[in-house]
Specification:
homotetramer; about 210 residues; mainly alpha; Arc Repressor Mutant, subunit A; Tetracycline Repressor, domain 2; disordered N terminus; DNA-binding
DNA sequence: CATGAATGAGACTTCATTCAT
DNA sequence: TATGAATGAAGTCTCATTCAT
């Protein structure tokens, strides 16, 4: 149907297949302990084929981070921008979604970036400025919206945003790093519900502060 | 009093000096990228001398974690157990202390453990069960105390504890992994103050819930 | 006259185009450091196409040597065989031509062969026996001619031939290997003139040796 | 007897042992085809030990060149500077020595440098400027001495020097690269004698040029 | 005929660990 | 007890060669 030249079809799918394989491997063993040969095996290709698509381990790592985080982030931004309705409900929804996502495999990425930040300064910068800052931005906007509409107490959105993100981070790291080895589980649903409840209450205007 | 000749003192201090050197090295480069030769150099000893005190890199890593976390944890436990006075104030104090500590070099340890959890399952288990669980225990006790004394709404302390820990974790990781590379700083003091305010309000009994 | 369709011309030219491309690449980077992909690119063909004409890198190398040296050698042989006139003038002409040729790109071939002799014994043998020996043969014939005609002192042509070849070799290697990196140039014309002068005088009969 | 610290004795001999082993290996197979593992085996050490003394293959190569050529060069310089007696005899002695040396294993170094010049520009520059230029300098001084003392015709020493060097170069390359594979040998002694004879005669004042 | 995607053997290099001194 | 020279397993990366298209 498409006029794709013979081999291209495969070639175009490859990078993304490799990145997926790499994510899996990195998540399981960490960046340093992952052998490129394993990544290749997971992707069902030869060792050298990796180098047709990525200039080395480092580039592959960066590609993993970029490919898996930016789409999710963009989705979150859009959700908040286009939302209407009461802010507390929006907060509940966003927090719930984030925490649920953090419990999944995507939550392994922060672990990777945090662990390797010292060895990949530019990746750390990218992650800090483009992912974390943008993520905080979404939450800041959410808080500002609530404050403006009188649904939240007047608070500095810059100071509050990290606190909204914190439960998600904790979930991501616990679920992807420690829980597999721990003797007790964390109930994500309860976690999310409690977080929303606690933060909502913390943000709502106190009665005596009202008019 | 002890008949130990002077130079024994040095010998007895060695393991701890080495562990300190190792912590510094691990924090700066991560576990895998740290060369034992660098640790030895930091400790001012020869490469081979390390092996007189630790059986290898792995043991050294575990010693780092054990040595630096358990004392802080024990201190926190004692503080809560022996405290009297209103719980909200105690919460403020504990959270403030924890977040401040997380911003310091000790906050680098979670980063290490999280990053290497997959490669050191028994260390991960140790950390999850002995450090995290015990840490949560302190916070759980704190919440339970407030609930019992009617200072907090009735809530499940198990569900709330992680939420109290989350800002500390975020601080630890941000300060020790990303901020050195990021273009913006996190104001720890504001962070702590806002966290306390938000969580206190979220925990306090709502007026209409009172009698 | 031939019924070959036009595009066959291209096909027939291919091997020679490839050999030219290979010569350029080998000369620039050396045999081992030359990637077949670069040769293909220089020749304007695909990597796999090389293998339709040459069975591998080694064959290609041999083809380069054979194709570029034998014609020049045959020309030199013919020149000496058919020459008449005084031998000193012929010596001057031949030496001048050889040194001039050595300064050009063809002079890069000795460099290649010499550098790879150990890895290509049969090529080394071919070069030693078919190129060098034949080349020496031309010079030997030249000297013998001069001796026979009483224009040169009686000398062993076998012993003199290498000495006539030496300036050419030095020129070839200097121009093609070292000069590009050196801070001083070699003046080929002066070199040739001085060589001819020196060798002519060295070969001419001394007056007291005459009758 | 020496107060050399335990391991030092060995450590100090090592670099030179390794360089010797490397020279042998490079000469036999060429730079690119030589595996560091072979060099190590020749030196009787482990693969990794090489890296305690040389930062890599490239450094090792450069060390080989520097270590083996500069002493011989310095010796030649001294010989000419301190010589007295007639210049033609000095010329005979120097040329004879050089050609004899070129026929030995040291003569393999030019082959190496020439073959790898393109891949080691700085080594090529070093060799061209420090070895070749200095070598030419010795010969230039020799010629100038003869001219000044009226033992040689007035000639430009700069133009003559390369011609004196050429037989040595040819000997070095033939003996070390091609002859092992060729069916005929080059008689070094005859070569040297003929070269001296030819060049001396070429340089001596012609009778009619005298007063 | 021509291509270039895919491969995997092989080389360089690093570094945890050992052990003679 | 302390050292650091030595080691070799293991990992990253290159590139000649193959073969489906």
């Amino acid at each position: 149907m498409t006029q794709a030249p013979r081999w291209r079809r495969r070639k175009e799918a490859r990078p993304s297949e490799i990145v997926d394989a790499a994510l899996g491997a990195f998540v399981e063993r960490g960046y340093a302990a992952t052998r490129l040969e394993d990544v290749a095996a997971r992707a069902g290709i030869g060792k050298g084929t990796l180098y047709l698509y990525f200039s080395g381990k480092e580039e592959l790592f960066k590609a993993v981070v970029r490919q898996h985080l930016l789409p999710a982030l963009a989705a979150a931004e859009r959700r908040v921008e286009t939302a209407d309705g009461p802010t507390p409900a929006l907060l509940a929804e966003v927090l719930g979604t984030l925490i649920a996502a953090a419990a999944g495999p995507m939550g392994a990425i922060p672990k990777l970036v945090i662990g390797e930040a010292a060895n990949f300064p530019d990746l750390a910068r990218f992650y800090a400025d483009e992912v974390v800052a943008r993520g905080f931005g979404v939450l800041r906007a959410l808080v500002a919206r609530g404050v403006e509409r009188g649904e939240f107490r007047p608070m500095d959105p810059d100071a509050v945003a990290p606190l909204l993100a914190a439960p998600m981070l904790l979930t991501a790291l616990w679920k992807n790093a420690l829980e597999p080895h721990a003797s007790r589980e964390l109930d994500t649903a309860t976690m999310a519900r409690t977080a929303v409840e606690l933060l909502q209450l913390g943000l709502l205007p106190r009665r005596e502060e009202g008019p």
